[in-house]
Structures are given as C-alpha cells and as structure tokens.
Amino acid sequence: MNLRDFRIGWRLLVQQPAYSLVVIAGLAVGFASCFLLFGYVAFCLNFNSAVPANDSVVAVKQRFNLAPRPEWQIRAFVPLRDVALASGMAQAATIVLPLETPLRVNGTPHALALSVVDPAFAAMFDVRALEGDVEAALARPDGLALTRTGAARLFGSTPALGQAVRADSATLLVRAILPDPPANGSVTYEALVGSSSTAWPQRATALSTWRSAPVYLKLAPGASSAALTALLEQANHNSPMIQPILNSALGQGLNGRKVADFALLPLRDAYFDPGMAASRDGARYGQRGAVAGMAAGGLLILLLASVNYVNLATVRTLRRQREIGIRKLLGASTSQLVRQFLSEAMLTAVLAAIVGLLLAWLLLPTFSDLVNRRLEGMFTPWRCLLALAFGAQVGAVAGLYPAWIAQTALPGPALAGRGNSETVDGLWVRRLLTVLQFASAMAICATALAVGWQTWYASHASPGFDPRQLLVLALPETSDKPGARAFIAQLAREPGVQGVATISEAVGRNNVMTGTTTTADGRDIPMEWKLVSPNWFAVHQLRPVHGQLFDPRQAPLPVPQDFDPRRSAAAQQLPPGTDVVLSAAAALALGYATPAVAVGKRLSDGGQIIGIAPDVRFHDLRQPPGAIVYRVQPARVLTIRTSDSFEAAYDQVALLWQRHFPNRIMDLQSQGAVLAERYADDARLVRILGITSAVAILLAGFGIYVLSAYSVQRHRRQIVLRKLYGAGRADIALMLGREFSLLVGAGALVGLPLAALAIQNYLAAYTEHAPIGAWTLAAALALAALVALLATTRHTFAALRVAPVVALRD
Q1: In this structure, what are the phi and psi dihedrals at residue 129, rounded to the nearest 5 degrees?
Q2: Which of 743, 690, 704 is closest to 439 using CA atoms?
Q3: DSSP letter string over 382-398?
Q4: Which residues have a Cβ under 8 Å from the Cβ of 385 and sit 6 or more positions away?
Q5: Burial of 106 (0-12, 13-18, 19+ CB in 10 A)
C-alpha cells in the first residue's frame, strides 16, 4: 500500500458523504465502546502497579470466625506491625488508618480523606513530595501532607505549603504537597499525618489497647509469607483481645478452629482477591470473570460494528463491478486491487478510530460513574497511538472480504452488468454474521431486563417498616455524651419532628456488631447485636410479634469508656442488659421451638427476653433476615421521623448541627437513600447492560437494514416476474419477510438460551426473586423482531414499488 491508494480512498469517501458518514459513525460507536471498556480492563489489570515491588508489599487481612457471617477485612491489631518487624521477615511496615476528623481552615470544616500512616509509608508506596519534605511531615507531631487535590480543596489557588490547619484541638502545619495517589490503588487519600501526630487521639494507646487498623508490610528478601502468617496468627492468638474469648464457652465451642484467620495479600493480587470481593468492601474489588466479560463485551460491540461495515462495503463493492472490470481491462493486477480496497478500509477505520477516541473522551465521565471507577488517566498519548494502530488493524481485517469480492470479479460479466452479486457462500457468511448480531443483542437485552427487574424488585422490597419520612444522621459521639444529649433533646422539640431514636448502625448499612449468646442447650453462638434507644421501635412504627417491645420511657444503659462499636462485641465487655428483644430468627437459633416460647426467658448475661420484634432487613435480599438481639444502650446513629420534606428538614437539622457540632460535617440522608445504597452496584450494572443492549440492538438493526437493501437488489428480477405472474403485494412482502424472520429466529435460538443461563446465575445470589419467568426472553425477542421489521420496511416498500420495465431492462 502506498500514499496513492489512500488518496484514492479519501476521494471516494468525500464523493459519497452519506455513505462515509454512516460507515464512520457506526464504526466510531464500536471503537468508542471498545476503548472505554478496555480502559476499564486496563485499570483493573494494573491495580497497584504504581507500588514498587508490589508482589512483596502485602496487606494483612483477617477474618473473625465468630461473626454470624465471617468475612475478610484488610485490618489487624496494630501491635502485629511490630511483631512482624521484630521477626526480621518484614523490612518495613505501616498502618493506614482513616480518620473521620474534618480539617478546618479559617473555621470552615472540610471532609478530606485523612489517614494516619507510619513514616515508612512514603518509601513503601513510593510517595515523593512535589513540594516540602514528606518524611518530616510524617515524622513530626504537627506535620501534615496534602495531595494536590487536597491542597486545592482547602486553600484553592493559594500556596498551601507552610499553612496552618486545625484538626479538632490540634494545629497542624502543611509540610509537604504530594501528587494524587493513583486511582487504581488499594490506598487512597487526600491528607496524611504520622502515627505520632497530635491529630490522632489514640496515638499513645494504640499499642497497649490492641486497636485494629489496616496494616501493610514489606517482606524482607527471601522471607516466607507462610512463616510470617503463622507468626502473626500465633501473636494474635496470645493477644489480650483473643485469650478471653478462647477461655470462654464460645472459644471452647470452636472445636479447634481459630478465632481469627490470617492471610498476607500481595498488593499485586489485591484487586482480584475473591475473599475481599465477597466482603462488605467488595465494591472496591473485582472478579476476573467480570473483567474478562467487560473485555469480551468491548470486542463484541466492535465486532458487531465491523460486521455492519463489511455488509456496507460488500454492497458498495458489488455496485462498483463495472469500475473494477474497467480497471482490470486497463491492466490493474489483483494485488493492486486488493491493496486499493484494503487501503480504503484502513483509512475508514482509522478515521472512525479518531472519532471513537473523541467520543470516548466525551463519554468518559459518564462511563466512570457507571463502573464506579476513576478512569480519568486512561487517555495517554501512548494509548491513543495504540488505539489508532488497533483501528488500522481492524480496518485491514474488515476489508479482506470486500477485497476478495473485488479480485474475483470478471471483466466481461462486470461490464455487461451481470456481475453485481456475490457468491452463495459469501451471502451465507453475511447472514451468519447478522444472526450473530441479533443473538448478541437479544442475549444482552434479555439479561438487562431481568437484572433491571430484579434490582427494582429488591430495592422496593419492604425493609420491615415504612422508610418514608425517616432520616438518618450519624453523630460524632454516642448519644449518652452531653453534647449529643443536648442535640437530641432540642431536635425532638423542633416543629415537624415526630420522633428521634438511636441505633448502633442504620438499617441498610452493613456494619455488623457481633455478640455471643448461650442457647437453651448451653452452646455459645454468635449473633448480631443492635444497640437501640427505647423508642426505636416506636419511631419506626413497629409492633411486637410476641410479647412486648421496649418501653420508650426506659433509660439507656451507659457505655463503657473503651467500647468501640466498630469492633466485635464478643471481644468487649458490655454491661448486662435488663431487657432484650429478639428477632424470630434469633429465637429459633437459641433453640426455642417457636419464637413465642422464648418470651420471658433469660439470656446468659441475665437479660430477659421481653418480646419478639418483626423482621427488619438490615441487609439486602442476598441474605435472609438475620438472628438479631436488640438491647437498650446509647449509640451513634440517629433515626429522625419528620412530617416535613427532606429539604426543609435538612435546613432545620443543619441549624442545630452548626450550633452543637461546629467542627463536624453533617451527613444527613433519607432512610430510603440509605436503603438504595445496598443496590447501587446493581443499578450501575443495569445501566451498563441497558446501554450495551441499546447499542447492540441498533447495530443489529443497521446490519439487517443493509442486508435487506442487498436482498431487494438481488431479487429485483424475481420480484418483477412474480408480479407479472399475478403475485400481490402481500406475497412479495411475505417472500422478503420470510428471509429476515428466519435470521431473527436463528438469532433467538442462539442468544436466548445464553441469556437464560446468565439470568439464572445472577438470580442465584438472591434469597428472594422477582416474578421473572420467561417474559424477559419474550420481550427481547419481540424487541428484536420489531427492530428487524422497522429496519426492513423501507426496502420492502421499495420492492413493492419497483417498475417491471426498469427492472427487466437493468
């Protein structure tokens, strides 16, 4: 191929603007989809690639086996960091503990992602200061390091280095400006302080009280990961947090199992770790199958778009038979013709790739929201060049079939007008490609409908109470503290506020607190504990199933000074409760024949079961209602019942918040919004599948549109002869429609069983299913048939209007 071939291709594109626009636009959509999906795949495959030696930098992950639903977490007791360093098997270690403390500048609080790290963090994660000294920022008690984004949020365009920032009562100095951490990394932050920082209130007691935090280690050369894991497990086993559990009846009931399992997770493998993907933080992780599916989806959409190009280019090549015949008579060789047609295809594909890159860049913010990943760094010059080279390769492959048709054309029949049809084998290949288009479109469409319907069903399933008019607000301290008590008391007196209650965690948030309870036959079993105020059930308008619920006038029991609601209640000493309320599942788990029998009995801590509460769905429909013990104690999450709109209530609460907690940032949400968070990933999946199915069905419709144009052209004489022998319009329409309906039917036979399997696998994760049946498959088939009908209508009417004299003369 030479420059002359590309110039001829360019002139042909300019001479036929309508054809060029359609071909380039169709391919551009395919390229844009492919680029975006491949950018997401690259994001996942290169996760933590910015960390030096990311195979030897490991996160300590732990699974607490006493929980009702044990799950892995990137979290361990802070003293284990020093155990690893003392062993010599770890050459560096750091915690990365997020703090909820807002940073204040000129009295205005800002919610930045602030984390406590050890001084070794900078070297382990290759963090280098753009300005200032990152080592000093992490080593000094008053040091603060801000990322470029964090500095802009606090100070705007004003230079941040050396500025003072308040964190509660501590005054910090900005001693370093850092680059923003990569979006595809396990550790993200906007501000960092050292482990000796005055902004961390627990800095002096973190070791002595065995607090937990995310811990990262850098293995020494030649160190055994298995040996270090065993050492950490033994240190954890001997810790003052675990020994009391082991010595209890609960620990003896473990039957040789560990209280907690440990593992060292290399950051290189963190993104695809199945244990973390199944945890409450699973939205931050991925599955290899899902990422491979995204890559396959990108290639599939590009394939569908390329099929349309092949169809269009084939029809155009057949219409250029006389031109090809003349060129052959004038001495053009086969290789020259092939080069010419491949040059045209490559030029078209490269132009489409350029448009696709522009379209992908415009759609990147929307796509990032869909996949819940920050992908703004995917458009680098090197990747754009690779995309254009990939576009040229696609063009070369897509141009092979039109080039083959061109080189097989014979000059004589072509000049006589008898060479404007392809071979039977070639026609069947294009029919099979159209079947593939419709099979893919129907499979994706049916799956999208099923996922969307199940997500709507799950998100609208009753949580056990009416969430309307309920608001959720997290307090900066437990409700028994003076500031929180004053805030709650004043809020309850506000106009429109019909009730204020507290709970240890909002309904819909997956922050499980575990306690142990003795069954009727003497076994200790783990259960979920919910610490509520006495009026919590009344605010939610819940009535007892058996017995009674808490008296709203009852005073909550005090909370110990060292009680941490984020830790397992089994590892802490809670004060014994006088009265408790159980869920029906909890009563059955305790060994009672029926929930009603449990009323009046006592738990092992002396608490008396006064009633059975109705089932409340604290989790999504993927899990059955849990075994829950409710006890009256102060907590940090408010539930507010109001008769006002959310906007009016927000303004009302914000005024009180500013008065009582001026240094904290208020996060007020409706209960409905909190419940919807459980299905945010499903909602994003629905949007992705919906957009993909729309693109696929449009490409399939365009493909059958082109095929119908060629079919009418190929059958012109047959149509005329049928008319001359008395065939009516309906007969001609049925003749053409039969061909296209068979293609759609064949696509359904291929695509719908695949969709049924995909739907079955998706629904298997739910304990309750929407009444789906086969209607999603039927709807996808009906939509495909409608698109095919609309796409072929124009050429069918053209066939009905063809004049016999003109057709026979041609």
Answers
A1: -75, 135
A2: 743
A3: HHHHHHHHHHHHHHHHH
A4: none
A5: exposed
- Where do runs of H (alpha helix) occur along 238-333? 243-246, 249-252, 274-277, 288-319, 321-329
Q: Which of 633, 576, 586 is nearest to 612 (CA)?
A: 586
Distance of CA 603 to the CA centre of its chain: 42
Q: Please tell me what DSSP assigns to residue 742.
A: H
**What's the CA gap between 5 and 1, in Å, rounded?**
6
**For residues 505 and 619, is the Cβ–Cβ distance under 8 A?**
no
Other CB atoms within a 10 A radius of the CB of residue 476 amount to 20
Backbone phi, psi, residue 781, to 5°: -65, -45
Cβ atoms of 348 and 24 within 8 Å: the answer is yes
Nearest CA to 287 out of 278, 296, 299 is that of 278
| Contact yes or no for 712/736 (Cβ under 8 A) | yes
| Cβ(610)–Cβ(579) below 8 Å | yes
Q: How far is CA 123 from CA 133, 222, 225, 265, 267, in A?
A: 13, 19, 21, 19, 15
Classify residue 500 by its DSSP letter: E
Q: What does the alpha-carbon distance between residue 248 and residue 258 come to, in Å, rounded to a whole number?
A: 14
Q: CA separation (Å) from 720 to 315, 698, 723, 803? A: 21, 31, 5, 8
| Residue 156 token pair | 């705007």
Point out the least confidently predicted range of 73-82, 211-220, 679-688, 711-720: 711-720
Interatomic CA distance for residues 620 and 510, integer angstroms: 9
What's the CA gap between 643 and 654, in Å, rounded?
Answer: 17
* pLDDT digit string, tens, across residues 473-497: 999 888 888 999 999 999 999 999 9
Contact between residue 696 and residue 702 where contact means Cβ atoms under 8 Å apart: no
CA distance 487 to 559: 18
SS3 of 155-207: the string is HCCCCCCCCEEEECCEEEEEEEEECCCCCCCCCCCCEEEECCCCCCCCCCCCC
3-state secondary structure of 473: strand
Distance between CA atoms of residues 624 and 359, nearest Å: 44
For residue 530, the SS3 value is strand
Better pLDDT: 234 or 708: 234
Burial class (CB within 10 angstroms; exposed 0-12, middle 13-18, buried 19+) of 4: exposed
- φ/ψ of 517, rounded to 5, equals -140, 145
> Which residues does 250 contact at the CB level (< 8 Å), separation at least 6?
66, 516, 524, 525, 526, 570
The model's pLDDT over 70-85, given as tens digits with 9 standing for 90+, comes to 889 999 998 999 999 9
What torsion, rounded to 10 degrees, do the Cα atoms 162, 166, 170, 175 define?
-20
Give the phi and the psi of residue 159 in degrees, each rounded to 5.
Answer: -55, 130
Q: 439 vs 28, 67, 177, 369, CA distance in Å? A: 22, 45, 53, 28
- H or E stretch covering 103: strand 103-105
pLDDT at 22: 78
Looking at residue 387, its amino acid is A
Q: Half-sphere exposure of 17 toward its Cβ, with a 13 Å CA cutoff?
A: 0
What is the pTM assigned to this prediction? 0.79
* DSSP one-letter code for 258: -
Q: Regarding predicted confidence, which is higher, 643 or 334?
A: 643
CA distance linking residue 176 with residue 161, whole number of Å: 6
Q: Are 784 and 747 in contact (CB under 8 A)?
A: yes
Per-residue confidence (pLDDT) for residue 727, from 0 to 100: 66
pLDDT of 569: 42
| Cα–Cα nearest to 64, from 233, 269, 267, 310 | 233
504 contacts: CB under 8 Å, gap ≥ 6: 513, 529, 530, 531, 532, 565, 633, 635, 636, 637
